[in-house]
Amino acid sequence: MLTPPSIVHWLGTDSLGQDVWLRLLEALPNTLLIALACGLLPLLIGLLLATLSRFGGSLIDRILLKITDILLLIPNVLPLMILAALLEPSLSTVIVLISLLSWQDDFRVLRAAIKRQLLSDAVLYAQSFSAGAMYLLRRHIWPPLSPLMVVLFLQNARRAVMLSAALAFLGLTDPRLPSWGGLLLDAQEQIHNPAFWWLLPGPLLAMTGLILLLNSSNSTQDPVF
Description:
mainly alpha; 72% helix
């Protein structure tokens, strides 16, 4: 237990004698799944609600805007922590919770982008030929928003990585769920022990590397809005 880094254990071992490097690799699939799912689900929710807002009439638009404004006033970390504390969530529950509390920004951005597309020459020309809403969405509104949606997806994924790690670090997820946040929690528990200095760098550098990778991918995109 708490063996320093060596040729056998590259990043040392934890208080249970588990290899830290292997635990990092074990947590990688869960982290990538959370990033992928929580990048995509809030985007889909935001896109569907933004589309409904622009095509569902002024009453629905006002209702959705009011709901969004109320949710934006509440930091999403607070309800996320409360729900996580009540549920001790599994991987799927973590994904659902983060997704349901992370769509508001996507909705506001996509609503404005769809409004802009509705004023484009292609849409106005198609409407003059009595084109239906679904035709306009499939051919003239959603496709031009693809670069913007990629940026929003990467932004959501980056936020999900940090939120899921924060929940695990606070002990609000299933302790049997391998995660980099759980590794950070293990390191924090050894803060007065020399083991802290070989337990901390692994998960910290792994999270930093993934977030920087998502940032670099984000910077290569050229959104339309």
